[in-house]
């Protein structure tokens, strides 16, 4: 690392704290010691942990500079498909930070945690109402954890009927975590293909559904951003053979208050509160993946469950058929507060409107770009639209090149090479919180990139040009990670 600071304007380079430290530098001042030195841990030999010596300003600048390298939903448009990177209103953060919530100890007895329990109880009711389902558990800590919870519920249901089944049907347009969750629960995933329309047909499900099959896991809207329009027939087929229907509801942002999931035959669904219901996500922070169930699965929900008796809330373990506990304490409470605040501030009409605008924005982009980029399915989409690099292939330009070039125009790239059913996929999810001007700027940038692909492919191969770090060797970065700097 050189001593030169500037790279692009005032975006400053930053060495590791260990490189920056200078022996004897210090970030605190304490009165001079007037007692003999004593080791905190008398058993500890050697010089203790290897911490760099830094001043307060060294430390503050280090983290502040690093924070300027970040790009997030608060910086600009972030159309990462399947991830719902929408703006999260700050009031929801503020409610989650209220000391009564943020500092509540998870071991408080229910008598001293009535407010927190009431919030969880009401949030469960709201999520049930939004989805149309009968009962909810807030325990799962992420989307994939909700999927596992759903699989365990289905497993417990079949066991209670005295039979056990070995397979789960999983379409090629399901999210990649689905087969993993089924396999973790001991089920064998049976892959099926979506039809030419990009959605499942009743026939392919009927062809594989049998009495050895525990059920189906559908992602709806699916990973092509399309609504599974044959879902009623499909759920009927699965139910007729004694199976259950799992819905991956991480894409709920398209259908809040619009689709009644119980009415279309769903038995269990998970939601991603950290996508649809306003918690900042990405980078491995905490999530929340509640499961919402049909009443036939309610006896199996995780314990403890929040129960309301009169005006009092308690925690109950008295559910003998429960699949047990899935998380420490009650799940990620801070995320529940954000979701609760978000739902109350939007209300039923606001939630529905949010979904309608998310769908409108995605369709606007689809229509504006479909002449330029190859659109895999030219039909109305839900919250996201999927293109590919087919039209640019003759110039030797790939999806990766175009995604990298977008950064030069100030946009976070969309999701690329997913879903796997589309080679060279470019999956764009604008969300409802982008204004028309920003969406138009994004469309202009994409069109400009398509022109560059035809006229100067090398420009794209070398992109990004303006970012702090240029094109990375992604294979080496994954295979030989440098964890020390
Ligand atoms: C994000 C997502 C998941 C996984 O959620 P995590 O919280 O990352 O575990 C599952 N299914 C779909 C459709 C998703 O978009």
CATH homologous superfamily title of the largest domain: Type I PLP-dependent aspartate aminotransferase-like (Major domain)
CATH second-level architecture of the largest domain: 3-Layer(aba) Sandwich
Main sheet makeup: 7 strands, mixed
Overall mean pLDDT stands at: 93
Sum up the overall morphology in one term.
Answer: globular
**Helix- and strand-based class?**
alpha/beta
Q: State the distance separating the first and last CA atoms.
A: 10 Å
In CATH's first tier, which class of the largest domain applies? Alpha Beta
Q: How do the strands of the widest beta sheet line up side by side? A: 3-9-8-7-6-4-5
Q: Note the total helix count.
A: 15
* CATH topology type of the largest domain: Aspartate Aminotransferase, domain 2
User: Helicity range of the residues?
Assistant: 25-40%
Beta strand %: 5-15%
Order of helices and strands: EEHHHHHEHEHEHEHEEHEEEHEEHEEHHH
Q: How many discrete domains? A: 2
Q: Based on DSSP secondary structure assignment, what is the total number of beta strands? A: 15
Tell me which ligands are bound.
pyridoxal-5'-phosphate
Uncertain parts = none
Gyration radius over CA? 26 Å
